[in-house]
Write a structure and sequence with these properties.
By secondary structure, the chain is an alpha/beta fold. It contains 13 helices and nine strands. Helix 4 crosses helix 5 and helix 6 packs across helix 7. The longest helix has 16 residues.
């Protein structure tokens, strides 16, 4: 097994262990709880300004955005959800459907954000699939919806090795090996970049997951709801995303069916979890797509990477 990569400098500045880094970022957050089935959905928010809502991927949590939250919280109110049945949020009523999950999120956003405020929404992977239904439900309140490496388009997927199951493994070291293998198979474009924080997040998030997100993501539910979105649509993909490798043009074309002006950014040398693996380039692409000024991009630490990523 490859030796772990060093912890990225932006995270190392917050602590010396994965647990300390997560705790340092979470300590700066304001927690809000909204209804979710018979329990509560958990939201965390940082900073002040116009709302930027982040929806994580399947078998994930708010920590999928660990390297993106603080840079944007300098100029925006960043709101990161734990989706129903994932992270610290309660289970959603079954059966789990995109429409049902989105309704829970929209109710939460109604409580978190004044209806007069425009909302920028970003969804990664499964968060983009559910986010499409949230975006449509927000109507005129939505300004932009940025989709990051999402399925839900009914498109072919690239051939990929099957993910390994950790569920029947009791030995902690052996279980950790499986989590690392799954990061290499699905989440990272280059396994040499897998660091202790990424591994810690993968283990923690996967073992809390209770929603079978792949069942929903393999449908065309996002593609069907995109035309109902009134705000601008954009997409960011890692060029080496193992789900869509060699098939990125088809993802771009689906977005432009709904919004002919949709900006589509491909970030080279990056895989599925592009927002973590190459965070500076991703932050720059997202800041540009959100229409942030050069001053705001500099405050977000994104200006220096603004040339990274190919717009198509």
């Amino acid at each position: 097994m490859l030796a772990p990569a060093p912890i990225p400098p932006d995270l190392m500045s917050l602590g010396f262990t994965p647990e300390a880094i997560v705790a340092a970022i979470e300590a700066r957050a304001t927690l809000t709880r909204t209804p979710c089935g018979s329990g509560e959905m958990v939201w965390r928010s940082w900073g002040q300004g116009e709302p930027l809502v982040l929806l994580h991927g399947g078998y994930g949590s708010w920590t999928h955005w660990l390297r993106n939250i603080l840079p944007f919280a300098d100029t925006r109110r960043v709101i990161a959800a734990d989706l129903p049945g994932l992270g610290d949020s309660a289970n959603a009523p079954e059966p789990h459907t995109p429409e049902g999950l989105a309704a829970i999120l929209i109710e939460g956003l109604d409580r978190l954000i004044d209806r007069a405020e425009p909302i920028d929404l970003v969804g990664f992977s499964f968060g983009g699939v559910i986010g499409g239904h949230v975006a449509a439900g927000l109507g005129a309140r939505l300004r932009r919806f940025v989709i990051v490496g999402s399925g839900g388009m009914g498109l072919p997927r690239a051939e990929m090795a099957p993910l390994r199951s950790w569920r029947s493994i009791d030995d902690p070291a052996a279980r950790e090996t499986v989590h690392r293998d799954n990061l290499a198979i699905l989440m990272f474009g280059d396994a040499i970049r897998i660091d202790p924080v990424a591994l810690h997040l993968q283990k923690r998030n996967a073992e809390k997951g209770r929603v079978r997100s792949p069942v929903i993501s393999r449908t065309d539910t996002l593609r069907r709801v995109l035309p109902a979105i009134t705000g601008r649509i954009g997409g960011i993909w890692g060029e080496d995303d193992n789900i869509a490798r060699g098939m990125l043009d088809s993802r771009r074309d689906v977005l432009r069916e709904a919004d002919p002006r949709a900006e589509f950014v491909v970030i080279p040398d990056a895989g599925h979890w592009v927002s973590y693996e190459v965070a500076p380039a991703f932050n720059a692409a997202l800041a540009r797509m959100l229409g942030m000024s050069l001053q705001d991009m500099a405050a977000a630490g994104a200006a220096g990477g603004a040339t990274q990523g190919r717009v198509s």
